[in-house]
Amino acid sequence: MKKEEFIALGISAELAAKAEKESEKELEGYVQKTKLDTVEAENKTLKQSVADRDKQLETLRASAGDNEALKKQIEAMKQQNADQEKAHKAELAQMRLDNAVETALTAAGAKNTKAVRALLDLTKVKLGEDGKLAGWEEQMTAVQKSDPYLFADKKAKPALRGFQPGASGDVKPGTKVDMSKMTYEELAAYVENNPDAE
Questions:
Q1: CB atoms within 10 A of CB 16
Q2: Residue 161: helix, strand or coil by DSSP?
Q3: CB-based contact 72:15 (threshold 8 Å)
Q4: Residue (of 87, 89, 79, 81) closest to 53 by Cα position
Q5: How many CB atoms lie within 10 A of CB 42?
Q6: What are the CA-CA distances from residue 44 to residues 34, 41, 95, 96, 99 (Å)?
Q7: pTM over 0.70
Q8: Contacts with 106 (C-beta within 8 Å, 6 or more apart), sequence order
Q9: Rounded CA separation 180/171 (Å)
Q10: Contacts for 81-86 with beta carbons within 8 Å, 24 or more apart?
């Protein structure tokens, strides 16, 4: 988690900075799930391709007697392999686009990525070589304007109750707090967190 997220949870800036460093240390060896999914899918496809080509070689060995038939088989296999390679590249490109869209939807605060994705015209969105989505901003702006309820309010601060790590511990149990010096928001928060306060 980032420092700002810790602060939003009610942790002091000093503790939030320390927590952010520890969080970064903890996540150093981790790989993003989208990257792992892409590599696993590519690995599965490559294993299938190797198995298919092994089968093709066995067929070639069996028909090695007729030279003309062998040439025709080799040409057919070359075409088949080229078609498989093209389909594999298209599948990987689609998977990368899907992962980039999913990541962008999460970053935009979509509450339900499937619902938001259904409202987008993904034919107008392209994934560049740099990993950035072209045409994305126009699509997202239109959906956020037409259906804002599908996105989390980034300004909303989560309401925490009970013990808050990093909160000021100046008030000792059994002592009175001078409520006359509090702002309305501070007073409301204090009374909400301390319902038995006088």
A1: 22
A2: coil
A3: no
A4: 81
A5: 14
A6: 15, 5, 14, 16, 18
A7: no
A8: 113
A9: 15
A10: 81/53, 84/49, 84/52
DSSP secondary structure of 22-77: HHHHHTTT---HHHHHHHHHHHHHHHHHHHHHHHHHHHHHHTTT-HHHHHHHHHHH
Using a 10 angstrom Cβ sphere, with 0-12 exposed, 13-18 middle and 19 or more buried, the burial of residue 184 is exposed
117's tokens: 């994705």
**What tens-digit pLDDT sequence spans the chain (198 residues)?**
778 887 888 888 888 888 888 888 887 777 778 888 888 888 888 888 888 888 887 777 776 666 777 778 888 888 888 898 899 888 888 888 888 888 888 888 888 889 988 898 888 888 888 878 888 888 888 888 998 888 887 666 656 566 655 555 555 555 677 777 778 888 888 788 777 776
Residue count of the chain: 198
Q: Classify residue 143 as exposed, middle or buried by CB count within 10 Å of its CB (0-12, 13-18, 19+).
A: buried
Tens-place pLDDT, residues 67-106: 777 778 888 888 888 898 899 888 888 888 888 888 888 8
Go through 113-122 and write b for each residue having 16 or more CB atoms within 10 A of its CB, e for each that does not.
beebeeebee
User: 173 φ, ψ to 5°?
Assistant: -60, 140
